[in-house]
Design goal:
Elements: H1 2-12, E1 24-27, E2 30-33, H2 58-69, H3 73-82, H4 89-99, E3 103-106, H5 111-119, E4 124-128, E5 133-140, E6 144-149, E7 152-160, H6 161-169, E8 175-178
Antiparallel strand pairs: 1-2, 3-8, 4-5, 4-8, 5-6, 6-7
């Protein structure tokens, strides 16, 4: 009976809590969340202008969103209050080290890092637009990628996997993520 009810709910498009039916795919008896890093709207950090150089803080906004997703709300708020402006890998790594925040990153365009970050439901920040912007990679499968752009946090942006990887690798191939416990997957 429970399975029939779930099927009827899925077919009706009424999942409740503001969730759209296209965010989930039924696979056998399990439900797979899409994107795999489905950051709630209230936890998505918009980009802001830094206080010193008045540059966009896209790297920091991405880290704040990922920290919130990984249940580190107080760390995310501290980071939001104390950091801003543009960043580069070595400087960001030093700031994270100084703050005692665990993280992993790559600067060589290694796709396996992106796959690991998404398969472990952590997601990661990736550079785009020739390295001038960072967005959160929230999904990566054999065909598709989804990003959360901190300049437009209302919707996930879906692009073909190959297009996303090419853009990222042509934008210095920097990816970074906090390494804590991500949100639990949907129950089977």
């Amino acid at each position: 009976m429970n399975r029939l009810l779930c099927v009827l709910i899925l077919l009706s498009g009424s999942l409740g809590c503001g969730t759209r039916i296209d965010e989930f795919h039924a696979v056998g008896l399990a439900t797979i969340e899409r994107p795999t890093v489905n950051i709630p709207v209230d936890d998505r950090q918009d980009n802001w202008l830094g206080r010193v150089e008045h540059e966009g803080s896209c790297v920091h906004a991405t880290i704040v969103s990922l920290l919130r997703w990984q249940g580190r709300y107080s760390t995310a708020e501290m980071w939001r209050q104390m950091h801003g402006d543009g960043e580069w890998p070595e400087h960001m790594a030093q700031q994270l080290d100084d703050a005692g925040i665990r993280y992993a990153y790559t600067v060589d365009g290694d796709v396996s890092f992106l796959e690991w970050a998404c398969s472990t439901r952590r997601g990661c920040g990736i550079t785009v637009f020739g390295g001038r912007h960072m967005v959160a990679l929230v999904h990566l499968d054999a065909e598709w990628a989804a990003i959360l752009d901190n300049n437009y946090t209302e919707e996930f942006i879906w692009v073909p996997r190959d297009v996303l990887i090419s853009e990222w690798q042509n934008s210095y191939g920097w990816a970074i993520t906090p390494v804590y416990t991500p949100a639990a997957p949907l129950p089977n």
